[in-house]
Amino acid sequence: MKGWRKCKFKGCGKQFEKLRPLQSTCSVQCALNHSKDLKAAKEKKDWRKKKAELKEQIISLSAYKKLLQLVINKIAREIDFCQPCISCGNPKPKKKNAGHYHSVGANPSVRFNLMNIYLQCEHCNSYLSGNLINYSKNLQETFGVDLFEYINFGIIAEYPVLKPSKEEVKEAIKRAKEFNKTLTNERLSKDDRIALRKAANKFIGLYQQKSPE
């Protein structure tokens, strides 16, 4: 199709009369230069893809687990919005942590389980090693004996081992972020707090919760 076109070679850009259907440059030299540019652009794109793949290979399973823990902890704090510290009862802690009842080091199989994580103040979490005596007492008083027994004993019996692959953890991160977007900053009832924890566990996919209703 004839007509005037702008030369596709970026170093030229002159107007030329198109004489052939596939003609995109004004001259043979510009065609060669344009071909080199296209090749360089493709190589750059391929390298970016390869670089991303190499970066993915470098990131360890442990690193992805740490990223997942951050999102899980955020969900726990959001569910417990405006709740007091689960251990000491501080109604307005300056720094809000996500405190594990069963520690990550001692029980890694439930480190991502929302039934095992509740809002806790920095002092109890970091300086009192979780303040577990009061943690236990307040879990029972807040949620009842049956649920406390599950959290205290049943959860470990149900999930003695958890060994997700890197891909499973990556997918869990994606789903945890998606679930977190559904949460709103509002104070919830104790029943809603447990219901949301069960829903989060199920949606994220690492745990199929069987805790007491």
Query: Tally of extended strands?
Result: 4
Poorly predicted ranges: none
**What is the alpha-carbon Rg in Å?**
28 Å
Domain module tally: 2
**General form:** elongated
Strand content: 5-15%
How many DSSP helices? 7
Secondary-structure element pattern, one letter each = EEHHEEHHHHH
State the major sheet: 2 strands, antiparallel
Alpha-carbon distance between the two ends: 73 Å
Class derived from helix and strand content? mainly alpha
Kindly state the percentage of residues in helix. 40-55%
Mean pLDDT: 92
- Enumerate the strands of the largest sheet in spatial order, edge to edge or round the barrel: 1-2
Verbal overview:
This protein is mainly alpha-helical and 213 residues long. The chain folds into 2 domains: 3-58; 61-204, no CATH class. It is built from 7 helices and 4 strands, in the order ββααββααααα. It has helices at 28-58, 61-79, 122-127, 132-143, 145-158, 166-180, 190-204; strands at residues 3-6, 15-18, 96-100, 117-121. The strands form 2 sheets. The protein has a two-stranded antiparallel sheet with strand order 1-2. Strands 3-4 form a two-stranded antiparallel ribbon. β1 and β2 form a beta hairpin. α2 runs parallel beside α6 and α4 (132-143) crosses α5 (145-158). The chain is elongated, with a radius of gyration of 28 Å. It starts with a strand and ends in a 9-residue tail after the last helix. The relative contact order is 0.12.
